[in-house]
Design a protein that fits this description.
This protein is α/β, with parallel strands linked by helices. It has helices spanning 2-29, 85-103, 122-130, 164-174, 189-193, 201-218, 255-262, 264-290, and strands at residues 64-69, 107-110, 134-141, 153-157, 178-179, 182-183, 230-232, 244-251. The strands form 2 sheets. Strands 2-1-3-8-4-7 form a 6-stranded mixed beta sheet, sandwiched between helices. Helix 2 (85-103) links the parallel strand 1 and strand 2. The model is unreliable at 30-48, 178-182 and 191-199 (pLDDT under 50).
């Protein structure tokens, strides 16, 4: 009798377990019965999310200019009173974009088109991810030691500032990602590796060429503080493969500079001047590549 019971258990027990599993599945596992434990999520396809819109000709062969309005959001930039640097740079960036689109021939993207905060490393990274042919970062200077300082300055990248003023400017702009001297976001390994790496000689040469063109075109339309382009270790100029310049358009604590930059005529002159320099730069670049 005991042997018969053991044989029954050997054959019946697995059937009982299987029946229990089927019953549980039908009771709890199917939608509409018991509890629905299957959750559905809408997953967006991967891609270049977060990148700004490229405007202009629908032709990828046309050169792309990325315009960077300095500061923004919680970082107002220079200026104890109104206007703040972030508002001034955005107004100038929008004016330049509109002029380039009006003239046609190039594509344009803005790192920011509204009052938003971007980390310093994000700005050149946007240009690189978009495959930009030129990166222009727009700023306005400020000084407490020289209330009479006025005029624009154009900068390219270097390991050491071309003068003490350039070093001071770079230190101030690069401190945007710091609070009380503490980094609020570490730079990527890629950016750290190219901190001031001038091994990309062609890119650096193109940056200097554009800076010279910009200085030549703009000095007839606006005052300049220096007699030639300057250089400093600005964080936003660290892209190794995109020609980049930083344009300090004037002093935000100088009434004459602010009046010039905030007026419609001043912004129009600024936009037209830079547009000419950009067009000449791309014409020369195309000629050099053809030869």
């Amino acid at each position: 009798m005991r042997r018969v019971l053991m044989l029954l258990l050997v054959f019946v027990a697995p059937l009982a377990v299987l029946a229990a599993m089927v019953l549980a599945d039908r009771t709890f596992g199917r939608p509409g019965r018991g509890f629905d434990y299957v959750l559905s999520f809408d997953v967006k396809p991967s891609g270049e999310s977060g990148l700004p819109k490229i405007e202009g000709p629908m032709d990828a062969s046309r050169p792309l200019v990325v315009i960077d309005a300095g500061h923004g959001g919680k970082d107002p930039g220079a200026g104890a009173d109104e206007p703040k640097e972030k508002a001034l740079t955005l107004a100038l960036a929008l004016a330049l974009r509109d002029e380039l689109l009006r003239q046609g021939g190039v594509r344009v993207a803005l790192t920011r088109s509204d009052d938003r905060y971007l980390f310093l490393e994000e700005r050149p990274a946007i240009a690189r991810r978009l495959g930009a042919d030129l990166f222009i970062s727009i700023h306005a200077d400020s000084t407490e030691s020289d209330s009479g300082a006025m005029g624009a300055t154009v900068y390219t990248l270097s390991a050491k500032g071309s003068n003490q003023t350039a070093e001071r400017m770079a230190a101030r702009e690069n401190a945007v990602d710091e609070i009380n001297g503490i980094k609020i976001k570490n730079q990527s390994d890629d950016v750290n590796a190219i901190l001031v790496d001038l091994s990309q000689r062609e890119t650096q040469a193109q940056s200097e060429q554009f800076a010279s063109l910009l200085f030549r075109e703009a000095r007839e339309a606006m005052p300049f503080k220096e007699t030639e382009p300057q250089s400093a270790a600005f964080a936003v100029l660290k892209s190794p493969d995109v020609p980049s310049v930083l344009f300090e358009t004037g002093y935000i604590n100088n009434p004459a500079d602010v009046a010039r930059l905030m007026s419609q005529a001043g912004r129009q002159s600024f936009a037209q001047t830079l547009s000419r320099a950009i067009k000449v730069f791309f014409a020369r670049t195309a000629t050099n590549r053809a030869t």
